[in-house]
Specification:
The structure is a homodimer. By secondary structure, chain A is α+β, with helices and mostly antiparallel strands. Helix content of chain A is 30%, strand content 29%.
Chain lengths: 408, 408
């Protein structure tokens, strides 16, 4: 993609209201646009990071046949009334009316709709287990949206749902997603720690949060230094003592990257999601739900992978494999750009004629692609380019032909 | 994907309220789930068709560097008040308030937000043209949602926006999308006819609709049998006479598959989207917008590509390359299924043990994959399978090894 016409610009000065590191860096690098408090658009850079994250998740879910579907954002209130959440959840659930005065809610999450559809699909025990997944927008009427994409009003979420014939089946499906989340966060270069969590508005069953220890986090987790037990402080009684080691738990802040829930029968009972067992008897389906916030994952990566100059994307998440910079050598650089594209290497190409080398380097550091390739008069004369990794200072001079090998 | 645990079921009987052919077939084939009037979820089958459609569009847009972005669904009303559309558009624009009483609207379309963001990006004439695209949900408070995905309250749309420095530039960008739409509809196996259209709530500039002639359509187009002139009847004066040939225009129904708009300065002026020209003087940016409804495209394909037994997907849009059916030969079929997956061939595998051959064939016809592969005791003994194209009656017996060649 040519930077001259890129629908994104780096920003030098950010308002003092912007507190979190990731929010600052994503704004400065041109990854996100604020539209309203807690509401953002994604530039082509941010969009590409989202796609990388989604594909890492998809590839993992494909291994155990979680089927991708898509559920709507506007939900009839009657379904939420059936499970009681229309009444139980506070103002965070955004309630709206259509022109005829009918009640709807905006998707805060999709347990209700998933169960509502499952009721039409599931007939017998032979249909189960079923695992489904989607990437869909969630909307919450947050009173204090803050931290950029760490806590937004509107955000894209991966949310999966499992349907099983008994508790044992539910536990097995839960285990699949739990293990999958471990692998996914590793692939996202995020050190996520699973901790015991409260089901919150989802239900009373077992739940884990995948936590990134970080001062930017709004959650507090308690941990035992001796046995390694970890929990969101929400699940602990007043005395913060390890039940096993009888010593005091330490506390730290964390960002919740994902959460898994054993929902049990809460939704399926209200919405009548039944199956016939091998004796032809009706039973209620056991459900689980599993979610990762995509924007929050991007922000978490930005929170960790950066230096004083800007973002430092892990290769697997970077919007482009490399940032190609022409220093007054556009004819030569155009050819290298085209050749790289032909080899299937996605490159952001700084072809701008009105920027100084200093401005271009500063932008490249802010945006944070893993490789910087510079073509200047000095290198071009030998059909070579200067290559530097974003997280190293070492500069190599390589021939155009060698670029392919380095970037693939 | 194994059909035994598929999150989709075919349906034999559909309510008489369902009128349009595509709506009936998509429900019967298990592609969509109704959640509320005009609000649908996509099964794994429907989701896959959507992905195919999106990728056909993306591949075309990549050729002229339309950059993919993502804009939010909840918009602050103030931006819509600035362009006047908050006041001008009727109840179809879904207006909501948050818990603090602030006004928002649900994205009926994204001209406002695209212009709002462009204002922060575009500085000088060197930045232009810029072309952006997204696939994002649209929500309209439709009074009479009908025809399934032909007219929904909530639907996924491809919407692109162009930004240019003058009218000539706008016309060139418009031409790019106009030509692109021609290619895209061809690749979607839809015979779309471009007709002169009204800008409607978008603006007063030139506009074209890409129309599929069909009785299922809610639009009326007029055409001249002599010179080929075509227009939505909305743009015609009372007398439906061809201006050139002076003969009466004929009328027919059509489904609007896509629309292109020359927006001119309507949005950029209200939202102050300016650039400095080569003399350093401020100018207003010219905009265009270009949209295709993804659900409507799927419905249009279903409307045309079917027979009395069900859907007949064109290969480029089919959720799976083939439907593999085991007739009591699951051990053998499992092996063939795994081998096909390993070769990168996406197969829906009917591994169900409690269905008769008749039921399986009926389902396969309803779902409409381009190839049906049957493994029965008779064929398996020779390591062979029976292959039939969905749109042909001829049956061939081929070895497992040959399947790859047929399906790739």
């Amino acid at each position: 993609m040519k930077q001259s016409h890129l629908f994104a610009k780096t920003i030098r000065n950010i308002s003092d209201d912007v507190k979190s590191v990731s929010h600052k860096l994503l704004l400065r690098g041109g990854f996100i646009f604020p539209v309203s408090a807690g509401i953002y658009a994604l530039s082509p850079l941010g969009f590409r990071v989202f796609e990388k994250i989604k594909n890492i998740i998809r590839n993992d879910f494909d291994q155990f046949e979680a089927q991708e579907i898509s559920m709507p954002i506007v939900h009839p209130a009657r379904i939420w009334k059936q499970t009681g959440r229309f009444q139980d959840i506070g103002d965070e659930l955004w309630k709206i009316k259509n022109r005829e005065g009918e009640d709807f809610v905006l998707a805060m999450t999709h347990e209700e709709i998933a169960a509502y559809i499952a009721e039409t699909i599931i007939k017998t025990y032979k249909d189960l287990p079923i695992l489904v997944n989607q990437f869909q927008v969630k909307i919450r009427d947050e009173l204090r949206a803050r931290g950029g994409m760490l806590r937004a009003k509107e955000f894209l979420m991966q949310d999966a749902y499992s349907f099983d014939k008994d508790e044992k089946g539910m536990d097995e499906s839960y285990e699949k997603f739990y293990e999958s989340y471990g692998r996914i966060f590793k692939n996202l270069s995020l050190e996520a720690v699973p901790v015991e969590a409260s089901g919150g508005v989802m239900g009373q069953g077992q739940s884990h949060e995948f936590m990134l220890i970080s001062e930017a986090g709004e959650d507090k987790i308690a941990f035992c230094e001796q046995c390694g037990y970890k929990a969101n402080i929400e699940v602990l009684a007043n005395a913060k003592i390890c039940q096993k080691c009888k010593i005091e738990l330490k506390e730290t802040s964390a960002v919740e990257l994902g959460q898994t829930f054993k929902l049990g029968l809460k939704y399926s009972r209200s919405l009548n999601v039944k199956f016939k067992d091998s004796n032809g008897k009706d039973n209620i389906v056991y459900m689980g739900s599993y979610g990762i916030g995509i924007g929050r994952a991007m922000a978490a990566v930005a929170e960790i992978h950066n230096d004083e100059k800007g973002l430092v994307w892990p290769q697997a998440l970077s919007p482009f494999a490399a940032h190609l910079i022409s220093l007054g050598q556009n004819k030569e650089s155009d050819r290298v750009y085209t050749a790289l594209l032909k080899s299937g290497i996605d490159v952001l190409y700084d072809d701008r004629l009105d920027k100084t080398p200093g401005e271009k380097f500063t932008d490249a550091d802010l945006m944070g692609m893993p490789f910087r390739i510079v073509i200047s008069a000095k290198t071009a004369v030998n059909k070579k380019a200067e290559v530097k990794k974003r997280n190293e200072n070492k500069v190599s001079i390589v021939s155009y032909a060698e670029l392919n090998n380095i970037l693939q």
